[in-house]
Amino acid sequence: MANIAAQRIKREFKEVIKSEEVAKCAIRVELLNDTFTELKGEIAGPPDTPYEGGTFVLEIKVPETYPFNPPKVRFVTKIWHPNISSVTGAICLDILKDQWAAAMTLRTVLLSLQALLSAAEPDDPQDAVVAKQYKENNEMFQITARHWTNVYAGGPNINKDCDDKIRRLADMGIEEHQARVALSSYDWELERATEQLFS
Amino acid sequence: MASTSAYSSKSELSVAQESSIDDAYLAPEARFECPICLAWLRDPLLTSCGHRFCRKCIESWLQRENPCCPVDNMKLTKDDIFPDNFTRREINQQRTKCPNIVRGCLEQLNPLDVESHLLVCEFRPPELPDNEKLRCFYVNWGCEEKFEDEPELEKHLEQKIHKHLNMISDACRKLTISQASGSSVIAQEANFWDPPSKNDQPSMSDSGNINELLKALYEKIVILEQKTREQDIIIANMTEQIQSTTLSMSKISLRHCNGCYLWYFKDFKSKISIMRNDHRNMYYSPGFYTSPNGYKLCIRLNISPYNQNSIAILIHMMKSEHDNTLDWPFSGRLTITLIHPVDASKNIKETMMTRPALDAFQKPVQEMNPKGFGYTEFALIEELFSQGYIDNNHLVVKVQAHPV
Asked: Which PANTHER family match (chain B) (predicted)?
């Protein structure tokens, strides 16, 4: 790894550890190897969003050309968000692509991701299904995102209705996550979801 | 802290420079830090939007499409960047201490030279290939020991607490000295590998850490001292136990010698001279038994009252707890042998039969019968020396007593 990348991550890592946000448990980073190329990030779901109370784990890979190129970041925790793939966790965020600037740091990246959870950009979606729901049936989007936060990110809000519908499908032999994806994609309409699953 | 601007009054400026000597390497002030590499500005350039970067850093950055400022995204072309010679001069005036100050390096360096200095610094820690051996946790305090595996390291940590404590107190003294010489930024030196702190907070927490560490170590000392004391007591008890066991062991061997007793008469020369000074001085062997429940006897050695040049060896009956079960007077065969340590043929051996009429063989009334039986002139002292009976200042007397 280029010396400058490792040096910078080393300094940034300490910076994040000492930052106010870590003190408030809003963000966290953890080293996964000695060469400073792989890190694990964590952000707390921002308040007054469906993600509140959840903890979202991120995979961060630092390229050799860092900080001249952005780090590669994706969500490990499954999340229902227009700009994040519900399948792969890939993130659509300008600063992780063409709007990256060398003066940005791990801390600013994590804070930007937290901001993305507060303010989605449905017109520049990563997950078209989620974005469509966000724009056309925002109430259903909120319910779905909150349910996913509860199931995958340890959020506090249990939605009994969602859980029941998933169990119905599970009783038919459908794998739980697959059932959740189908139901989420069809606004929790059991019939349409079933139809899609068995077609 | 040194966050005053370059245009501040003279006194403020001098304060700024003074403190930057101590912490400059650790944390370049924001105005000396490159936002790209987060280190000291090297060959600084200034953009038209007012941001400073190392030449190498900004030039690498501007190779991308649509070059813009990494800080505020303003469009930048080569014409928008100028050498910032003012900042370059400012940085050149900065001085920082070598991070190896904890090991004794007193170099004052330009912050840009620290890295190259570290490669040649004579106080740098010895190089070690990664993962080859474990370093002692106190390597930063100067402990250079290495270990093959964890148990070894743990053993070392346990055994060398004292050494490590000394190292820490040495380092502490050094830090106190550097504090006395004018700066409040002590602990940062101990914490050299920390990244630059952006918000420039003084390192009170770090010196607090050292205090806490010291406190913890002192607590450990107290605990260990207590432990030592407990161990001392245990050792003393055991020593006592060992002594009493040895004593009872020797008692047992005296009881179970079956009437054949070897008396190692130690320190022969000085005892002879004591006896020569006063003929009333006599030496008695410990009491031994003819059988586990048999008669108890002892050997007496003294200088013959009739002939100053001879030693007398006699046997005394002693009182024992089961005298009542025995037949009196004692009757049997007694053999006294003076052992020659090298040549068995020179052993002086005398055998005698008891005589029932003698007082010496009656049932003892006192601890020991006042009358003994034996030879008042057993051997010439002169001969004992000249014939080599005294080996290592010992004389060995063997007595065999067999009741008949």
From this structure: TNF RECEPTOR ASSOCIATED FACTOR (PTHR10131), TNF RECEPTOR-ASSOCIATED FACTOR 6 (PTHR10131:SF152)
